[in-house]
Write a structure and sequence with these properties.
29% of the residues are buried. This protein has one domain: Porin, CATH 2.40.160. With 232 residues, it is mainly β. It has no helices and 14 strands.
Length: 232
């Protein structure tokens, strides 16, 4: 009776990649903006903090040789977070007598949609497979929730302010960055397997807040995924 062929004996050129996972590291960034009220300059300091993100990846990998491949992977990620601000608001009657105000804005979101285009080196032995990859990341859409200028009320003698509302801005921008990573796979058969992967990507994105002030943040970060690999 002939022996069964070993896994991988028949090399597959096209691999479907599907993963779900998390970005375990938090996203933190800050900004300081200035504005003019009552012929005097005020300031606003904002600290943003977004929690662990969750998302997924889907892509195709094509092997030109036994070990060399290229891949294109679509990924999405969403985070929840908040912003803490400290404002210094000019006095309407006196110069150099700013009125402080602080606050927190919750239920903010941060979303990223990215396409990674990579060169891949991969292989395997028996039921175990591996791949390492690196390439260009096209951050098609980075959508942070940023806060606008706090609105406030005050009454004579105007020595203090009460923040009444804080608008939430939803800008969107694209950027180009990079990514590197790798994966380990357990192959159930020549056609299917389960994999754990890690990818680090990065792109710096800058947003206009009000025409005079900008916010800069680093999109991407570490993403750890678990998923399936299907060969054709």
């Amino acid at each position: 009776m002939p022996a069964a062929p070993a896994l991988g004996a028949e090399r597959s050129q096209l691999v479907l990649l599907l993963s779900g996972g998390a970005a375990p590291l938090k996203l933190d960034f800050s900004e300081t903006r200035s504005f003019t009220e009552f012929a005097e300059e005020g300031s606003l300091d904002v600290d943003y903090g977004f929690d662990t993100g969750f998302g997924g990846e889907a892509g195709l990998r094509y092997f030109f040789t036994e070990h060399i491949a290229a891949e294109a992977v679509f990924s999405f990620l969403t985070r929840n977070g908040s912003a803490e601000f400290t404002g210094s608001f000019p006095h309407p009657l006196y110069l150099n007598r700013p009125r402080p105000a602080t606050g927190t804005v919750s239920d903010l979101s941060h979303k990223e949609t990215t396409v990674h285009v990579n060169a891949v080196y991969g292989g395997g032995e028996a039921s175990l497979g591996y791949a390492v990859f690196a390439g260009v990341s096209f951050f098609v859409k980075v959508e942070p929730a940023l806060i606008g200028q706090p609105q406030y009320s005050h009454a004579f003698p105007f020595d203090s302010v009460t923040v009444t509302s804080v608008p939430v801005l939803s800008p969107s921008k694209s950027a180009v960055g990079f990514n590197v990573g790798g994966e380990l796979e357990y192959r159930f058969s020549d056609r299917a397997g389960a994999a754990i992967s890690a990818r680090y990507s990065r792109a710096t994105v800058e947003f206009d807040v009000d025409g005079e002030n900008r916010v800069k943040l680093d999109a991407g970060g570490l993403f750890v995924g678990v998923g399936i690999r299907v060969r054709f």
